[in-house]
Amino acid sequence: MSTNVVESWQINPDAAAEDLEAKQPFIDNGLDVLDPSRYYSPEFMTREWEKLWTRTWLIAGIESDIREPGDYSVFRLGRESMIIVRDIELYSLCEHHILPFFGKAHVAYIPNGKILGLSKIPRIVDMFAQRLQIQERLTDNVADALMEIVSPHGVGVVVEARHLCMMMRGVEKQNSTAVTSSLRGTFKHDAKTRDEFLRLAHGSLVPSA
What we know:
By secondary structure, this protein is of the alpha+beta class. The chain is 34% helix and 23% strand.
């Protein structure tokens, strides 16, 4: 891996001066671009920004579609008890401030003759997280996708996330967590099912009697 190391004696003041116009937004925000350790910072930032918008992993979900055949392993099974995958880590970008939010998702469903390969549930979360997104929509996207793929009796999704747009800027609250839920079918209409899901999602591994 190549590394750009710039010593002060390597910087041509005349060449640097000619390049100041391109670097002006950085200078206006207090970045000394003639400091050897920061000489390439504007180029690094520009390169990473370009990579972000050329379908890097952070927004790779834009290219995914739950309707693409062969992407999901669906099996026939007569089970009708709850299946839950919890603590699925997620990373996304706030579509309003283009700052990351990150956290975990808890996803459950009650099969109706079909089950989904367990690893596919985190894949669905990633697909909808890896794009410009808001947490509220992300939660609904995951629930609706599961309903479409396996047509279960019901789906429950809880997402807990921390948002840099609330931590680094604005109200600057460092310890706040946003929690959203999306309930479909039995999870929405049956209190016992809903309570069991929320108990399991929030830490208790003992299902209700």
